[in-house]
Amino acid sequence: MKTATGLLLISFLIMGIAIDESTAMVVKGDQFEVLSDRYVIIYDGSFWSREGSSLKKLPKENEVFYFLRDGDKYHLKNREVLK
What we know:
With 83 residues, the protein is mainly beta. It contains one helix and seven strands, in the order αβββββββ.
């Protein structure tokens, strides 16, 4: 049996989305917007942070998760945060 972390190490092509029970994602076409005072966690094999990464010690590329908060938008097909 493989753990979620093990699966991520095997295939960085996997996209994972985790949402809190009091969080909503409004999906329109290939995009979604987060509606909540909590977060949506994304794993897509890349890194994004509104604060940037210069002051952060980042994990290995295939172990990076990031957080989207209220009002943030994400393009599912392109796997990128929309600004």
